[in-house]
Design a protein that fits this description.
The structure holds 2 protein chains of 2 kinds. Chain A has a 6-stranded mixed beta sheet with strand order 5-4-3-2-1-6. The radius of gyration of chain A is 24 Å and the shape is elongated. Chain A is built from 3 helices and 6 strands, in the order αβββββααβ. The longest helix of chain A has about 55 residues. The termini of chain A are far apart. By secondary structure, chain A is α+β, with helices and mostly antiparallel strands. Chain A has 2 domains: about 55 residues; about 170 residues, no CATH class. Chain B is mainly α. Chain B has one domain. Helix content of chain B is about 70%, strand content about 0%. Chain B contains 11 helices and 2 strands, in the order ααααααααββααα. A two-stranded antiparallel sheet of chain B has the order 1-2. The longest helix of chain B is centred in the middle third of the chain and has 31 residues. Classes of the chains: A alpha+beta, B mainly alpha. The interface between A and B is medium-sized, with 23 and 27 residues.
Chain lengths: ~230, ~240
């Protein structure tokens, strides 16, 4: 038997073994994905519900909030390049609040994602930062879990602020003539969050009726809501 | 099966002599990235222990079926698949822990220490010895990470165990220097990781040199392995 022939056989054999390993381990990954999917989806929903409970006061809505969601197409004024979601809270069928996803691109280190809950009357009930990469120990006080001031975290100052009382230009930090506090040494993070909260409230107020009347699960392109 | 002597040797290698963080200097990227606090660092360390033990076990059990020429792709396939499964299982059944560790688990694949141990040890040794090796190498990383994370956290923000309430509910972090500690930012930023690791490596090398010198001066029994229990005590 020639050397070339046996080389071909060796490479065929190793290729077959490699294929066998790939199939076996891909099957293992696929089956564990299938087995864990229901549990993962349930805990994702639970995490979303926990987040919404942090921004909406208990008892302010009685609908199945997670199902009453509409999707937004790419929305530059909310910083959503790939679209986002708006959940609608209703009490006894009447509009109660909108929970809007938004993002600030002008943080100190990249994108800051937030959810903002705005009552139908234009009063903010809560804001939470859902992801950020601000400097640990410096700009990360925008996340109440990292805020050293546990009794009055920085983010809590947005709660109870009304769209009617604070004009659009003042939704920024006091240093820029705005209405909101910041901590010395980390103005950029606070400014980015304050401004994106302002933009979110403006968006919710401007499109309130469209947002509440769209059918659940539908997607609003930006042109349609104008 | 492995003997007690073998076990001690593997443990000594992993925890002290060939310590991944201080001796071999492998897997520096995750070490420097996650050691901003003690809890983060220890958590990633423990996840790495799990991944190393499992991948060493699987590779050692399958080592007779893996042709030498394609061993590296097969090892990477095995490690990546195992880490994916660990990631999914954590996400599904230990969700609160996953929220803390989640971002670190995929990072384990990129940690070259896992592949290094599979290639250097599991591919040549039995399943049980390889699992022990994975656990010990991982634990060697855990204590270095915990020390590094604790050091940076203490100097940087004056606390210890911050974030522990997310892992063990009901506990709270320690404010070591009181509430008005201004913080020392550079310890938490990436350069601080290099400074702190540099100090640890210097301490490790000096302790190691002193132990070796002592073992040379009074060779009671003559065998160099006699120095090992002392070294282990220092590591623990």
């Amino acid at each position: 038997m020639s050397a070339r022939y046996s080389a071909a056989r060796t490479s065929l054999r190793t290729a077959a073994i490699m294929l066998g390993f790939t199939v076996a381990f891909t099957a293992m990954m696929a089956s564990s994905y299938e087995a864990t999917r229901p549990a993962i989806e349930a805990s994702l929903q639970e995490a979303q519900m926990r987040l919404i409970d942090e921004v909406l006061p208990p008892g302010s809505y009685d609908n199945a909030l997670l199902e009453d969601v509409i999707h937004l197409g790419p929305t530059p004024e909310l910083g959503l390049d790939e679209g986002g979601r708006v959940w609608r809270a209703r009490k006894a069928g009447a509009p109660s609040a909108l929970v809007v996803e938004a993002a600030a691109g002008d943080g100190y280190a990249g994108r800051i994602a937030v959810v903002v809950a705005v009552g139908a009357d234009g009063v903010v009930s809560g804001v939470r930062v859902t992801s950020h990469r601000e400097t640990p120990g410096l700009g990360d006080y925008i996340d109440p879990k990292k805020d050293r001031n546990k009794t009055a975290p920085w983010i809590a100052q947005f709660s109870g602020v009304s769209w009617d009382k604070v004009e659009a230009a003042r939704w920024t930090v006091k240093k820029d003539g705005g209405a909101f506090d910041y901590r010395t040494g980390a103005t950029i993070s606070a400014r980015a969050v304050s401004r994106v909260v302002g933009r979110s409230v403006a968006f919710a107020m401007q499109h309130r009726d469209t947002l509440f009347s769209a059918s659940a699960g539908s997607t609003l392109a930006q042109g349609a809501s104008r | 099966m492995i003997t007690a002597q073998q076990f001690r040797e593997i443990a000594h290698n992993g925890l002290w002599k060939q310590n991944t963080g201080l001796g071999q200097l492998l897997g520096l990227c995750p070490i420097l990235a996650v050691s901003t606090s003690m809890v983060n660092a220890t958590s990633l360390g423990l996840a790495t222990v799990l991944a190393m033990a499992l991948s060493n076990l699987v590779v050692a059990s399958l080592r007779n079926f893996i042709p030498y020429e394609i061993r590296i792709p097969v090892f990477i396939l095995i490690i990546a698949a195992l880490v994916t499964v660990i990631d999914l299982l954590f996400n599904a059944y230990l969700h609160s822990l996953y929220l803390v560790l989640g971002i670190f688990i995929p990072l384990i694949v990129t940690n070259c220490i896992v592949l290094a141990r599979v290639e250097a040890y599991a591919a040549k040794n039995g399943a049980i010895a390889s699992t022990v090796d994975g656990v010990m190498m991982g634990l060697g990383l855990v204590w270095v990470l915990a020390l590094l994370g604790g050091l940076r956290e203490l100097v940087g923000s004056g606390t210890l165990f911050s974030g522990i309430e997310m892992i063990i509910p009901g506990t709270s972090p320690l404010q070591v220097f009181g509430d008005d500690y201004p913080g020392f930012l550079i310890a938490i930023l990436p350069p601080g990781a290099f400074f702190a690791l540099g100090c640890l490596i210097a301490a490790y090398n000096s302790i190691k040199a002193r132990l070796e010198a002592r073992a040379r001066r009074n060779p009671s029994g003559g065998a160099p392995t006699e120095a090992e229990p002392a070294a282990e005590g220092a590591a623990g």
